[in-house]
Predict the 3D structure of the following.
Amino acid sequence: MRSVVIGGGHLAYFAITALRDIDPRGRLTIIEFTSEKVEMLKKTFPFADVVLSSIEGVEEYISRNRFLIDVLVSATDSDALNLRYAKHSIKIDLPIVIAILNNPLNEPVFAKENVRYVINPYKTIESKIKEIVGKFRVNVIHEFSKVEGGIYAIKVEDAKTLRRVQSFVLKSDTPFFVLSTDKRIRASSAKDIQIGDVIYLACHDREIKGLLKKIGRLES
Amino acid sequence: MDVSVVLPSKNRERHVRRAVRTAFRARHVREVIVVDGGSSDNTVDVALKEGAKVIIQSNLVYPGKGIAMRDGAYLSSGDIVVFVDVDIANLTPEFIEKLYTPIMRGEAEFVKGCFERVAGRVTELVAKPLLRMFYPELAKFRQPLSGEIAGLREVFYQVEFESGWGVDVGLLIDLHKMGVRIVEVDLGFKEHDMKPLHALTDMAYQVAEAILKRAMRDGKIDELWASEYMSSIGKMDLRGAGFA
Amino acid sequence: MTPEEYFIVRVALAITSIALTIFLGSKSGALIMRNLSKFGRSFASKLAELVKYFIIILGAIVAFSILSLDVIVLTSISIGIFIVLLISMRDVFSNYAGEIYLRVRRPFDEGDFIKVGRISGRVVSINSQDVELVSVKGERIIIPNQFFLKYPVVNKSSAAPTSIELKVVFSGVAPEEAEKIVAEALSVIQPELFEDPKILSIITRDDKTEVDLLLSVANQQKMKWLIGRLSKELHGRGVEVEIV
């Protein structure tokens, strides 16, 4: 597949290595704005075509190659630029358009502008800290990109939560596994869930919201 | 030609409604962009309700005015971009029109606004002396640190924006070096919240840093002299200099 | 039994009939909610209400019949009213049918970017009467569900790769040679494909060798270019081929 990454900073670095991993034989083009960075990128990523462009030239490049580009990742150090390039790419019907955020506060800004795939590289900070410290009530472990749902961790702290969670799992047939207090990872039946366990559920947003309301933990 | 007005702002919910409405009332303005620096008040909601485009600046650092200006320029789609401080109490549409008119007339590609105000301390004590030393051709500007500027959008895409307070003087020097035609227009009187003296140390430092960095880049001074000068700036005691 | 006693019994039976159908209606509604919630809670609740009241109306008709009220007249009037409602609210029912189609067939979900006719935008919500979109310009668009029963919808968010089967027909070339030539040509276009190409089959028929290929791309606009490129590679190897 043919991928284009706009930007040459640390966000772009991770995008480039991921795309290379997905398709080692694919065509990868990196677009940067300064000749010094272009030279550096050519050395760091010898498998990629590195292109020097002006800010406005990027949109022309994308438009010219719209029949060939499969994936476009906008990963510059400016959310304003990333938004601009993502919107342009969506307008010309590129199949997969991804923007990587510099500032996570811009996530709703991108969503409002119909950029479907937005990566917030800082999202794991909160979930990791909760996981490490362990004093959480609900933890969003992962959000799916193509489905409105994800994997959620709920700590079963009391009998009421236990009952609700068991009932939810039985009624909705949601896949789950349990991290028990003795640090075992179990995928067993609902009746084996105990107080103190952390249950990891994979389900849609609307389902988890229903459960959280019932156990009085409707958080973001 | 159409105009984009960019309003960098942070925690300015009291001012942003008026600023956005005023900007939209200026002729040829196609969009108003508020670049928010991570406000904890309702600046963003108020701006959105008034029809402004809003984006949060890419890096939440203090001061991040330069980053905000850069992001505003990148997001804009007008032929001319006008930058205005959001907390100017006497902001009028004519303020904005005066800034872009020389560009529309083909007289310049970049315009600095100047205004009557209570004396700019960093301007008089830091910016002007350094400009006179290293860029005497720019010493004629009455307000080299003015944040009220306008320029062709394509011109802003060819320069780097300093992240902090040095952004305005940095743009002035860089665009001058590029051969861009620059004029200064009189905007009248500016009613503006003034920073207390102790808050000006960082500003003075960053302005000096922006000028000296460019002077070094352009071969006008050597690095050793510059770092000695910068440390001497840090030790300057501005108390008792006659300012409030 | 006296006529009065007979009347009391009939009233009791009528009340029992209505009570039973209310009970059955509620239970049916709950069953529908439980089993169809996966298609959307609001859709399931509306269907549950419809079924519940239908059962209750049946119970009411039975009760009227027990009480020897003129069921035929009542039924005719009800059917008449129902037909009038159907005709006057046919759009409403069409929209409702559209919602059933959207829930069961799921051509798109909330959050997907779709194009229907000349309208495109991101799906905000799928409701019983309409679908709400937000366009790229931020405009709110409401599309009645019946629209989706009539017009094709393109779901641009599915981004599933498109696969196409091609047949390359060689004249007077042995199968092993044909396979080798095709593999070489495919290796040239492989970097542009979303997934590795597959040779599905090689068949010899009347001095012609047919090689069936499967190519996969994410960018559907690329298919024509790819076929042209493959054609060029094959012809460049000095063989007479036809791509079907």
Summary: Chain A has eight helices and eleven strands. Helices of chain A lie at 10-22, 35-44, 57-64, 79-91, 107-112, 123-133, 159-172, 205-214. Chain A has a mean pLDDT of 90.
